[in-house]
Design goal:
Blueprint lengths: L1 E5 L8 E5 L9 E11 L1 H8 L8 E2 L3 E9 L11 E5 L8 E5 L4 E2 L6 H21 L7 E4 L5 H12 L3 E6 L2 H9 L4 E4 L5 H8 L5 E6 L6 H5 L2 E9 L13 H5 L4 E3 L3 H4 L3 H16 L9 E4 L3 H9 L7 E4 L1
Parallel strand pairs: 9-10, 9-12, 10-11, 12-13, 13-14, 15-16
Antiparallel strand pairs: 1-2, 1-4, 3-5, 3-7, 3-16, 5-6, 6-8
Helix pairs in contact: 2-3, 2-9
The protein binds NADPH dihydro-nicotinamide-adenine-dinucleotide phosphate.
NADPH dihydro-nicotinamide-adenine-dinucleotide phosphate (NDP) binds next to helix 1, helix 2, helix 3 and helix 10.
């Protein structure tokens, strides 16, 4: 079968489309024929070596498809089930062997392509808005990169929970998408000083929570946007890592909180996985959460897809089709 692997960390050019042996399921595993794999920023971190993997590695942490074989002791799924998953490396491929514990059977009315687009970024937006800082009416949040994969979903979920949503984006086009997704106000952080804008838009009060996936270029200023006892949720580093941090800053900025969460700790148990996926996929089935999947590339063009994501040319989800 075909897969996209990395033999040496580096730029998009190190992504190699090649033949590898087709997987057979071990005990507890199911083989999934992949209809679509999700591209996520974490794939960039693994490709460049910012996050370490044993090489060669087949990239990709998310996919949707059909179960074609199951190993011994599998009770969660059966052959023919339409499923989606995240958190298991190896999705940039035609087939993947996945621990059945990590598979979610899609509800009727949700396609495998939608499953591939929803699992990682959808459950991330869900845990950020519903668990890390459970947004409520009266809260104002700041969502950086509001037209990105997580961003568009987070705007929608934050709005559903009754919060006031301020979003940042780099272009006017992206601003339109963030507004459509529910942002009440959008700040062009490439042209405007987002700290001054947040203060203006909140009458100097600040926001209860900053959801920051951008990192290096936004992190420090984000603290000046927080209301006392608010929370900085640093969940990514699309512009680069933030470096060392002095906890005294938390005191100076108003007894604020800092967390650096990962989806994989929020879906560590099967019960957590099924609860979060069930909520997200249910919203999609019911038309309450809209996926934007305009960017789709053949799997063999994974390098081009990475260039588009890193070049800030994508919005919403990017999918790879084997
Ligand atoms: P996005 O679709 O959000 O793409 C990244 C966006 O970041 C760009 O479109 C761009 O939006 C913005 N950006 C700002 N500065 C830069 C820069 N220097 N280079 C590139 N992009 C920049 O990606 P994802 O939705 O896949 O992921 C968003 C972030 O969330 C990533 O950092 C990822 O690691 C993180 N993440 C974390 C998870 C967790 O559990 N901790 C889970 C899932 C994702 P604009 O042009 O508007 O500035």
């Amino acid at each position: 079968m075909k897969a996209v692997r990395v033999h040496t960390p580096g730029g998009p050019e190190v992504l190699t489309y090649e033949d590898v042996p087709a997987p057979t399921p071990k005990a507890g595993e199911a083989v999934v024929k992949i209809d679509a794999a999700g591209l996520n920023y974490i794939d960039v971190y693994f490709r460049t070596g910012q996050y370490k993997a044993e090489l060669p590695v087949t990239l990709g942490m998310e996919a949707g498809g059909t179960v074609t074989a199951v190993g011994p002791n599998v009770t969660e799924v059966k052959v023919g089930d339409k499923v989606a998953y995240t958190g298991v490396p190896g999705a940039y491929a035609e087939l993947a062997a996945v621990p059945a514990q990590r598979l979610v059977v899609l509800p009727a009315g949700v396609a495998t392509r939608q499953g591939a687009a929803a699992m990682l970024q959808g459950m991330t937006a869900q845990y950020l808005a519903c668990s890390t800082w459970p947004l409520k009416s009266g809260d104002t949040c700041l969502v950086h990169a509001a037209a990105g994969g997580v961003g568009l979903l987070l705007c929608q979920i934050a709005r559903m929970r009754g919060a006031r949503v301020l979003g940042t984006v780099s272009t006017e086009d992206k601003a339109g998408l963030a507004r459509e997704a529910g942002a009440h106000e959008v700040i062009l952080y490439t042209k405007q000083d987002f700290e001054a804008e947040v203060k203006r838009l909140t009458d100097g009060k600040g926001v209860q929570v900053v959801y920051d996936s951008v990192g290096k270029t936004t992190f420090d200023k984000g603290f000046n946007c927080l209301a006392p006892r608010g929370m900085m949720v640093l969940y990514g580093q699309s512009s680069g890592p933030v470096g060392m941090f002095d906890p005294q800053v938390l005191n100076q900025k108003g007894s604020v909180f800092l967390t650096r969460p990962s989806l994989f700790h929020y879906i560590a148990t099967r019960a957590d996985l099924l609860a979060r996926a069930g909520e997200v996929l249910g919203w999609i089935r019911d038309g309450k959460l809209k996926l934007r999947t305009e960017f789709e590339f053949p799997l063999k063009d994974a390098a081009e897809a990475h260039r588009a994501l890193e070049g800030r040319r994508t919005t919403g989800k990017v999918l790879l089709k084997p």
